[in-house]
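Hi support team,

I'm opening this ticket because the web form for multi-chain structure prediction keeps timing out on my end. I have pasted the exact lines I submitted so you can reproduce it. The total is 534 residues across two entries, so I didn't expect it to be a heavy job. Is there a limit I'm missing, or should I split the entries? Thanks in advance, R.K.
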Amino acid sequence: MTTEAPTDDHIPWYHTVTAMIVAGCLVAIVNFGVRSTFGFFTVPVSEAHGWPREIFSFAMAMQNLIWGIATPIAGMLADRYGSARVLMAGAVIYCIGMLVMAYTDSASVFNLGGGLLVGVGIAFSSFSIVMAALGRIVPPDRRSWAFGIATASGSLGQFIFAPLGAMLVSAYGWQQALVILAVLSLLIILFAAPLLKQNTSGSRPTPGEADLTMKAAIGLAFGHRSYVLLVSGFFVCGFQLAFITVHMPAYLAEHGISKEFAGLAMGLIGLFNVVGSYVSGIIGGRGEKHVPLAFIYLTRAAITATFVLLPVTETTTLLFTCSMGLLWLSTVPLTMGLVTVMFGTRYMATLYGFVFVSHQIGSFLGVWLAGRLYDQFGSYDIVWWLSVGLGVFAFIVNLPIREKRAPRFATA
Amino acid sequence: MKLAGHRLALVLFAGVIVVWLIGMAVVMRHAALPPDASGTMLAVFEPGTPEDEVFAALTRADARIVKPSGLGFIWVVSSQQPGLAGKLRREGALGAYRELPVSPVIAGCFAFADAKVASLAQ
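Hello R.K., no limit was hit. The queue was backed up. Here is the completed structure from your submission:
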């Protein structure tokens, strides 16, 4: 498997397919990496301003909501003007948002910077925009692999930036650390530059794709049963991951697992996530995507049920986190791949953006509903079983997806 | 520039990790506490150091063990006497650091989790 098209010998190295894939991966590393450090700022920022932690947490919650809402908008702009320009604009907004976080003394301005601006910045420079570019650059038989390496890069970014962020806070203080990270986010502009070649301004449909307006494409997609099924399934992904991320440390603490061990075990999710995302991309390129996607959800359900039924020990915790890590973002390359199969590459960023909104709604509910149910029942058991049930639901809804071009998206 | 897919992934990720290690080394040098520092801190020994050697070094440095970190070569220790960081270095620790707000930051799709988990880990 090589990444080069035959014509690559006649173009500058920075516009070769390999260079553009590397560039896209570096964008994903920085985008996901920088945002993964925000948790380290909760305490120092709150203490420096004398704020309760709700203010920081509210800004982060708002950031995620805005990220979800802005992703289809970013996708529309990327499909219209090209991914590189959107990525570059996103980097600037991301940077400004973090600088606002660093220098404001006002809680409302902090929410504006850390919530609104950073949320928009993340959406505009996210790996879904990168994947849209890669989807157009690489040949169809390598597309899934490209989605896998881009997702794995994002996973690697969050794994390596987390300790770096903690050390930056320790070495230079939270304010300077935020400024350094803001400057680092501008690297996205540099890394996105090779992708400028993939410019979709005034683009025409690729051979085999029908000439549809964006509005028509969105309307037709939501009338397409397989797309609705895919959107429904991705909701479950968001629910499961957000629930585990936020509530599992508390669940483990209740069962006598030390927070240090819990941190180590949860960190392994990040490491195994890199492997799982990459392998998922390879699997998606070898045959049908909806079947492995369905089985990822079913396997998550089975692993979760087994974990809840067994006594919580250090061994079962490690087994759970490592296996869930393998399945963590492995849904992404397959989901993106299915969007491309159904609708082609012309509006892939937009249509994946709407799938991602469903994911973020699931994430919100995974955090909020789990907290509510815990308060009501004094136990996470019901949420674990809800997660199992949703996993089975996602398995059922993904199996009937028809993996072929949607009607009216293909020329006759 | 032609690279096979898997080799490209390997080279890319290895390269990123090398750059990261260099960046971490630089930042860790700046993050290390000065020799006269006291209070609660992380004592970091070389990975793989036997626990009895770590305990002996901590005892010689007059450090009180507060808690383990989850990794055998990193311990949270404390002393009100000035110069604990310097003593730890003299007794074989790689460095002493302020207790970091370390948290399991894996919230790939939901940064609110980062904030919540970080606060849980305090």
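A quick check on our side: Residues 11-197 of chain A form a domain with the Growth Hormone; Chain: A; fold (CATH 1.20.1250.20). Let us know if the file doesn't open in your viewer.
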